[in-house]
# Entry
Amino acid sequence: MTIDPVPTSTYRLQFGPTFGFRDATAALPYLDRLGVGTLYASPYLKARAGSTHGYDIVDPNALNPEIGSVDEHAAMIAAAQARGIGHLLDFVPNHMGIGPDNPWWNDVLAWGERSPYAKFFDIDWRPLRPDLHGKVLVPFLGDHYGRVLENGELRVQFDAGAGTFAVAYYANRFPLAPASTAPILRRAAGDVPALRALANAFAAARSGAHDERRVRAVRRRVRALEHDLAEHARDAQVRAAIERACASFTADPEDAHSGDALDELLGSQHYRLAFWRVAVDDINYRRFFDINDLAGIRVEDAEVLAQTHRLVFEMIGDGRLQGLRIDHIDGLYNPGGYANLLHERAEALGHPLYLVIEKILAPFERLRADWLVDGTTGYEFMNAVNGLFVDANVERFFDRIYARALGRTLDYHEVALEAKRSIININLASELSVLATDLARIAASDRRSSDFTFIGLRRALAEVVAAFPVYRTYVVSEDIAPEGREFIEAAVALAQRRSALADTALFDFIADVLCVRVHLQRATHYDRKAVLRFAMRFQQYTSPVMAKSIEDTAFYRYLRLVSLNEVGGEPTRFGTSLEEFHAANRRAAQRHPHGLLATATHDHKRGEDTRLRIDALSEVPAEWSRALRRWSRLNRGKRGDAAPLAPSTNDEYLLYQTLLGTWPIAWRDPGTVASEAYAAYVERIVAYLEKATREAKIHTSWANQDAMYEAATQAFVRGILDRTSDNRFPGEIAAFAALLSPIAMIHSLAQVVLKCTAPGVPDIYQGCELWDFSLVDPDNRRPVDYAARNAMLARVSADPAAALASWDDGAVKLAITSSLLHLRREARETFANGSYVALAAQGPWSDRIVAFARNEIVVVAPRLVRPLLDPDAAAPALRLSEERLPVPAAAYTERFTGARIEAVDGSISLAALLNRFPVAVLLPIVDSRV
# Structure
């Protein structure tokens, strides 16, 4: 069956050791019944053993055996295609997992710069430290190198089957250079003289030449010697002698000099083992953010791209894959060039490719028009639609609530700047040093800039990066796009104003280099290629700085209304107006009508219904303010004596929002909740707050954990949620959540309707067709019960409106999701390429109605509904009266209720429409046009 590469919808599945290809195949009948158009898979190429996310790929040309076999993968694809369901794969071109599972990385460690895979990884073989020239820093030790070695934790190991040696450190294994086999075999030769000849042969099999032919010859010779050694080792006596020789290198903790031989052996390697904390200052390979065991790869090199994409291109070429989601495209050297190459290669294979990219856009930023992509993964829609359900009129009131709770005023921009400087100067300091070294070399090449010092350039660069307004620019030549030049010059100007550096000419030089115009000055000694290369490498640095400092730090420090602290979001944008929402949709329809529309992802900070529940606080600001004061007094005694400030007032403020956002709808009386379920919920909150406080990096962090603060905070959480009779707090949380839930439930249905009908492709994150009260990963990657969902869908799909009566279980959300996904299949062209026209409601509450037309289909959804709720209804319902909506046709059938809706004088009554069911999608009745 031919599958249209542009999906009608996508459904994201998280593959891993507990959910494989067979599980996905079993879920396909349900997904088909749900109406899903495309199976959207998390990375499933071969990753490190035990990987729960798949982003640590170690072999991009093999399937992950923990997820399933080649046959099981083929069965999944065949079963999906038989149902007309396409396939979209999350692909990772930026980095690989490194360690004992990665043969390319191990070859680099064994052969250094002479390895054919050396150019695969983004390694600086000539870093600032002379002792690292020609070496890779490998920061995987749990303590300082000397201590680890002298404690006997490093051991030489022999792989008898392969005839190779490595140094083992717990689960890690670092291969030894082939020449290092010689001293080991010489020690073994005392017991087995025949090994001496092999030792001499290994010693001779070395080459310092750059000539590829000679290097290949040496590698062939070494492979033959390793084969010979493996043959010798089949003899038990030989193997035992080698094992004794290996053991002789292990240091004795009681003998200070016993580690000298191993130290000398390690000193001759193409890498230097180091304490993991050393990476902050000295690492010389590009990482994914600050994760030591994820190394950047150079897909800008044609050979590297071909080798890392072989399986993916095979799957595109034979029709197994219709689309790719490109992970972290901003980490690449030339993102636009890479995306365009993928598109062109797919065209050459005869299979047009649906291509979306993980790209976070600033509110004032637009996706490049010259990139051959269908759009982004949808963070911009997620934040725009979420803002519809935040009341912008109470922003100042929330400022006062937050300031009173903290006892001080926090300015988000100052918080973000402080976080950026911290990430630059601590977490990603070594990468900045690499950049500064390259910039200093450029400066030294001409007398006009030769007085600029490394230290001065590094400080100025740090300020420019901290001032950068976007994730990155996209300089690829001297012909820079105007917006790129504007972003660079704005950042440099701001950095110069903030800086205390005496020599401000540094900033002018940096601006000229980043804009690739320094060579246009009268001086002619600058290397144009070096300048362009620096400008492009600089862009690979600003993106991880932005992500780590904003999403993973500032968003855990500035907590005014945490539903706004979402990936790609801006905590200071307090709400989205109808005009802004419609304008964003019109742009999407014109520029990228097939981009993904997300409301939940594997990377979200809070589940879509958690977010909406917290949004609802903006509709009850007075009640929220009173509750905070009451809860602060009520729970003051739950803090431990050893750490009276744990949790901090800021962390406590986050905790209360988190509890209100995640509290299960059905738990109206905490005392009646089953003990096991309640305990599991408490531990989820404990785990979340531990992660949140570590991400904030104020009282504790991943790198420097404060055990006392964390223990006291955990005790506080368990204490305030304890269900003893004298603790009123759980009951108060339950009552407040019950106040917010009807508001959030109607908003959730509205969000589903808007996502499934706006310009773009709706993406359903696994399980979110029911209420999604998850938090950040790993909480949002819990198993999904597809059998239960299938049974529920069979019960409610015929009558979505009837499911509203039992709204606690989320069946109503499931029903309307399925109805709309099927509608998108039925009216593919309307939603893929149809027009978008905003419709303005009339009446007292007109600003609470979001409405638009896709061709002749009319969509209507409410927002900020608290004043519109019907207090007498058994289930959440609206009570509108005078509001009307102009519509293009004379009569419609409402999708969820089946009701016939007649237009009078070109408009319909919203009371007649939404008081029956709180959202509506109107299908024109044939021959009824005015």
Q: What stands out?
A: The first strand starts at residue 10 and ends at 13.
